[in-house]
Amino acid sequence: MSEDRLDQRRVVGRVKWFDPAKGFGFIVADDGGPDILLHANVLRNFGQSSVADGARITVMVQQTARGAQAVEVNEILPPESEVGPPIEDLSDSDAEEIAALPLEPARVKWFDKAKGFGFGNVFGRPEDVFIHIEVLRRSGFADLQPGEAVCLRVIEGKRGRMAAQVASWETAFRDRH
Hints:
Blueprint: H1 2-6, E1 8-19, E2 24-29, E3 36-39, H2 40-46, E4 56-64, E5 67-77, H3 95-100, E6 104-112, E7 117-122, E8 128-132, H4 133-138, E9 149-157, E10 160-168, H5 169-176
Antiparallel strand pairs: 1-2, 1-4, 2-3, 4-5, 6-7, 6-9, 7-8, 9-10
């Protein structure tokens, strides 16, 4: 195993694209070179089923007969914010206020990327939590799967509880230890 580690190198870059349905995507390294394959299994080992296009990513890369391939994800940061329409219920919140909210363990009830929203269930609470696609993208995700374990930072919106941020279960767990 230590010999395998010697053949790996740490790469920082951005996600060129990732398609959860196809099960793979590509990373462009900051220092150039050919695209790096990112397989869904490697992403799942990090605790996410998808990643947003343009997200900053740090991975361990190994050269294979088919080219450079990510073998471990170390960190994912959401894409740099483009100025877009504000989300009505979040327009008064800043990043520090959102980061101060507790992470609540949840399961995805359903999410429809084409509709641009979905819902999650927070453990121990009866009401659904609304998840907007823009919040998902700003959190570094491209999509969510039914039953996926996540952690949510939740606010009270005009129409009920709403996710202000989504984090992978594993990321939230790592941050607590």
